[in-house]
Structure formats: C-alpha cells, structure tokens
Amino acid sequence: MNDSFGSKPNNSNKELMWAILFVFIAALSVYAVVTASRSFSWNQLKAMIEGAHPLFVCLAVLCMLCFILFEGLSLRVLIKSFSHKCKLKDCIIFSAADIYFSAITPSATGGQPACAYFMAKSGIPTSCVTVSLVFNLALYTFSIIIIGAVCFLVFPGIYFYFRPLTRILIVIGAVTLVLLALLFILFILKKSFIDNAGWFIIGIGSKLHIIKNREAWDSKLAKWTEEYMQYADQIWLHKKDIAIALLFNVLQRACQMAVTMFMYIAVYIGRPGFSARGVIANGVHLFGAQSLITIGATYIPVPGAMGFTDLMMLDGFSSLMPESEAAALELISRSISFYGCVILCFIIVVAAFLARRDSNEEE
Predict the structure, then answer these.
(1) Cα 66 from chain centroid?
(2) Counts for the chain of helices (H) and strands (E), in that order
(3) Are 293 and 261 in contact (CB under 8 A)?
(4) What pLDDT was estimated at residue 280?
(5) pLDDT score at 3
(6) pLDDT at 227
(7) Comparing 230 with 65, which gets the higher pLDDT?
(8) Residues 266, 60: contact at Cβ < 8 Å?
(9) Other Cβ atoms within 10 Å of 78 Cβ, number
(10) What are phi and psi of 275, to 5 degrees?
(11) What is the DSSP string of 230-253?
C-alpha cells in the first residue's frame, strides 16, 4: 500500500517555546508543592534521599525505564501485525519521542505527531503509522481505566482520602477517558469519522488560505482514507496482538504508578517504629492513590499536567504521613517518574536526530 500523505517534523521554534514553558511550569510546580506544605524542609528532603533503601530506589528507576520500554514494545506488536519490520531500538525511539513531546505540550498533543515523524522516517507507511498510533492511544487510555477500576474495587476507600476538589477532578477525568477511548475506537471503525475530520481540517485551512487547491486536498484525503481503512480493518484480524499490546500498555502505566510505591518503601523500610508489612501495605495504598491521580490528571490542558498532578499527589500522600514528608516524597517520586523520564527521552530523541542527520550526510 502506497501512502499519499507524508510526515514533516515539528517547527523547531515551537518546540523550543514548549520546552521553555515546560521548565517554567516545572519550577512553578515544585514551588507550589513546597509552599503548600508549611513545614516542608529541604534538610528533611535530603535526609529522606540519603536514607532511602538502594534496592527499592533501583526498582523505582527500573520502573521508569520500563515505562519507556513497554510503549515501544506495544507499538512494535501493532506495527508487526501489519507485516512491517520494526527493530526494538527504533520502537524505543518512537516511545521516547511520544513521551517527551507529550510532556512539553498541553494535553499531550505533541506526542503523536513527533512519534509519527520518526515512524515515517523509518519507512513505515503513513496509513500504518496513523492506525497504529490511534489504536495504541486507545489501548493506553483503556489501560488507565482498567488499573484505576481495579484499584478502586480493591481499595474503594482510597477515593475518599482525597479532598473534594481532587475527587471532582478524578470523576471528570474518568468520564473524559471513557469518552476519548470510545472516540479513538470510532476513528478506527468508522470511515465517516475520518472523512468528516479531514474535511473539517481542510475547510479551515482553505478559509485561512493555508490550503490553496482544496479539490486536490480533497482528492488526497479520499485516497489516504481508503488506505487508512485497509489498515484499520486489518488490525481487528489480529486479536492476539491487540491483547498483547493492551498488556504492554497496562504494564507501562503500572510501572509509572509503581515508582511512588517503591520510593515510599525505600524511604520508610527499616525505619524505627515502621514494620516491613505496614510499609509495604502503605506502598500498595499509594499505588492505588496514584492510579486515581493519573485518571484525574491525564488530559488536563497543561504540559505534563504539571502543578495539578503534583498537588493531587500531595493531597493523596498526606493521608499516610505528615504533610512535610508527603511533599518530600512527592518531589522525589515525581523527579524519577516524570522529570527524569522526560530528560532521558529528550536525550534519546536528540541522539536519534543526530544519528539520522549523520546518516543523511554520509549518503
């Protein structure tokens, strides 16, 4: 199948602008957490880091790495289901691009285009790229719902540990996730959804005089839609691959949530007055709280949901420990699960860009 649409990299000035905004909001988020806890102490934070159990810190870091890996594995399964070859190394680059650009753009809007750019440059047909990304996004959304639902059923009381405002955000997030998951599936099942969305975008582009020849674009859209639906229809024939991709998405989200659990255990295991069983039980409790926080913050229109996620984590953690320690644990956990992950993905993306540029120069 030949594709009629191509992919182009994002504008570098916009990328720089979002990166600067990301750093600015990150600084504000840390400031908000620190100031929200009146008794917060940087010395206490330092002591918690120095006293953390190395084994559980390593497990937390491993979970962060697996968060990147499992998205790559999920994309690889979906791409291979269309009989296209895809190296694991390339899929990790796709994952890193998605995670990094999702983190620095509102509502994660930049992740899919950046991922699509790398996939197209790797020789994967554009229609295959689009179907794979839309389907993976649907599975990603379903995985959040699945984990949150399981945690709520096992620990229903966790929801009521949050303040009323946080509870409202969780409910709104749950409804939004369900609606978006259904919308993603409709974009794979219904050709009319793709046609209408394409015509809407072309119409706006024509009115703004961005698109000069509307008839040519309408023709391209019709051809591309036919190619897209061929892949969309084909994916339902690979139910085993869908199940495996969903499993990888569930593991990906679980790994991100488990960072908090392992960091809590790392900080409190072996402390005087804390039993190992009690610490582990509280760690599992925090995993459940983290699943609800993820539901409430996933599609908040702020890069990385920064600020909202941090304060929701502080709210949930304060039910198990003094507020000052909750703030310190939030900063440590978030530094690994989010900021550290974004920095690592940035390094992977830059390395991929440089490697591609060197390869093009040699050719």
Answers:
(1) 13
(2) 14, 0
(3) no
(4) 93
(5) 45
(6) 75
(7) 65
(8) yes
(9) 26
(10) -80, 150
(11) HHHHHHTT-HHHHHHHHHHHHHHH
Q: Distance between CA atoms of 286 and 58, rounded to whole angstroms? A: 18
Q: Mean pLDDT, to the nearest integer, of 65-72?
A: 96
Is the Cα dihedral 48, 54, 59, 65 positive or negative?
A: positive
Angstrom distances, CA of residue 172 to CA of 42, 177, 342: 34, 9, 26
Residue 77: is its pLDDT beyond 50? yes
* Greatest extent of the chain over all pairs of C-alpha atoms, in Å: 74
Confirm whether 11 is domain-assigned: no
143 pLDDT higher than 90: yes
Choose among 260, 272, 277, 276: nearest CA to 335. 260
Q: Quick check: is 3 in a domain?
A: no
How many other β-carbons are positioned within 10 Å of the β-carbon of residue 212? 9
pLDDT value at position 126?
Answer: 84
Residue 7 has pLDDT above 70, yes or no: no
Residue 155, both tokens:
């620990």
Residue 55 lies inside a defined structural domain of this protein: yes
Instruction: Give a yes or no: residue 155 inside a domain.
Output: yes
User: Mean of the pLDDT values across residues 165-179?
Assistant: 89
Radius of gyration over alpha carbons of the chain, in Å? Answer: 22
159: containing domain? 16-362
Please tell me the distance from the alpha carbon of residue 70 to that of residue 66, in angstroms, as a whole number: 6
Q: What is the pTM of this model?
A: 0.81
| Greater pLDDT, 73 or 43 | 73
Domains held by the chain: number? 1
First to last CA, the chain: 26
22-36 core/surface letters (b: 16 or more CB in 10 A; e: else) = beebbeebbebbbeb
pLDDT tier at 363, thresholds 50, 70, 90 = low
